TrEMBL record:
Entry GO CC: transcription export complex 2
All copies of domain PCI, residue ranges: 210-396
Protein name (record): PCI domain-containing protein
Gene Ontology BP term (one): post-transcriptional tethering of RNA polymerase II gene DNA at nuclear periphery
Domain of life: Eukaryota
Gene Ontology MF: a single term: double-stranded DNA binding
PANTHER family in UniProt: PCI DOMAIN-CONTAINING PROTEIN 2, UNCHARACTERIZED PROTEASOME COMPONENT REGION PCI-CONTAINING
Origin species: Astrephomene gubernaculifera
Length: 411
């Protein structure tokens, strides 16, 4: 074991002297040869020896020691401790090195920083899972977010290194994953604005572009800007590698509800291809104006939709489904009473809902119709005394692009 540790230190020392960031990143990764050394230390119950590590220059001896302690803790099943060792010993030191030099001298550290950002996220997630099982507060991912901000600051604020600024995009991708997992969505806006301000998107790798568009689209949907959400999520869907089926499915989980809110229904074949059967009854409900089917699907899949973050999006489809049903009722009424085609008795809509097993009291139904009119799903007005919906003689059911999807009264 002593021989292996000396050989590892020698390899790392050579990489550092050559400023070979890629090789140094490999040697300081969780899957490096240090893993075998840590396994032996853990099996023997021995601490990490400091002697061989002292051959490394400052602060690399401390960084390598922290990595070994992290890996030993992992071998012992102590995930929270492993995360703490890595965050405080490896990630913090690397971020300090980046922030200490805003120029090009530290560009060789970029692979190390990007690797550390991703590995810290992984360790933090595992640590929080362990803490949650113990019944303790899961705080490691929150601490990870702070560390990622330090990495981002060290890269994005470089005065003369375009390579660092370009690399900051990769860190932002990791930050988005962490913020959404923490439900700290508002924290996403500042780093995204920084990327836009520095015009870093165009130079980013395709995989990073897709990731950024995916999270920007989700953020837009959260802000009820569904046109913008459609734009970004559509980009992510169209440019995501076809071989990455899970990633395509992840994008579609948000793109499909957004498209439906804008009046575009997915094909049944698309839903089958990417394994989204839970959306098929939703698609049918919107197409047929079947409010009962939509409500039953939302109830049946409530936990799944909430966990994926799509429940509130899908719940918004209720007004769209009601509009579709109203349009069908109005068409039948116009055929039977052409002279009063634009005066739709509310009793007809009540009867159509009753056929679906839905009972609405008169006041509740009027409120729903008033909401449809207010949000511009329908043009017309309610004649309360006669209980009639008077539709506009032209364009009574406008294009959904004109609909007020966001809450007009929200602040």
């Amino acid at each position: 074991m002593a021989h292996q540790l000396s050989g590892y230190v020698q390899e790392l020392s050579t990489a550092l002297k050559r400023r070979d960031g890629r090789r140094a990143a490999e040697l300081l990764s969780l899957s490096s040869p240090a893993g075998l050394i840590a396994h032996q230390l853990a099996a023997q119950g021995r601490p990490v020896p400091s002697g061989p590590l002292s051959a490394l220059p400052d602060p690399w001896a401390d960084i390598a020691g922290a990595l070994l302690r992290c890996l030993v803790a992992q071998n012992n099943g102590e995930r929270a401790l492993a995360c703490k060792e890595y965050r405080e010993g490896c990630a913090a030191a690397l971020a300090s090195l980046l922030n200490a030099d805003k120029g090009t001298e530290s560009e060789w550290l970029i692979p190390l920083a990007l690797g550390a950002a991703e590995q810290l996220k992984q360790l933090s997630q595992l640590a929080d899972e362990e803490l949650a099982r113990r019944g303790a507060a899961a705080s490691q991912l929150s601490e990870c977010a702070i560390s990622l901000q330090n990495f981002f600051r060290g890269l994005a604020t470089s005065k003369s290194s375009q390579a660092k600024k370009d690399a900051s995009v990769a860190v932002v991708c990791v930050m988005m994953k962490v913020y959404f997992r923490l439900n700290a969505i508002n924290n996403c806006k500042q780093p995204l604005q920084q990327i836009e301000l520095n015009r870093l998107f165009d130079n980013a790798k395709q995989a990073h572009k897709v990731t950024l568009r995916y999270y920007t689209g989700r953020l837009a949907a959260y802000d009820e800007d569904f046109q913008r959400a459609d734009e970004h999520l559509s980009y992510a869907f169209e440019h995501c590698a076809a071989s990455q089926t899970n990633n395509v499915r992840r994008v579609l989980r948000y793109l499909v509800p957004v498209k439906m809110l804008l009046g575009v229904l997915p094909s049944a074949a698309l839903l089958r291809q990417y394994g989204l059967p839970e959306y098929e009854p939703v698609r049918q409900a919107v197409a047929e104006g079947n409010l009962a089917l939509l409500l039953a699907t939302l109830e049946e899949n409530q936990i799944r939709f909430i966990q994926s973050g799509t429940y509130l999006l899908l719940e918004r489809l209720q007004l769209l489904v009601l509009r579709r049903l109203l349009r069908r009722v109005a068409a039948v009424h116009a055929q039977l009473n052409p002279g009063k085609a634009h005066q739709v008795p509310l009793a007809l809509l009540e009867a159509a809902l009753a056929l679906q097993g839905i009972s609405k009291d008169p006041l509740e139904l009027q409120c729903l119709l008033a909401n449809l009119i207010f949000r511009r799903y329908v043009k017309g007005y309610l004649a309360y005394k006669s209980r009639v919906l008077v539709l506009a003689k032209s364009d009574a059911f406008p294009q959904l692009s004109a609909v007020q999807l966001a809450d007009p009264l929200a602040t």
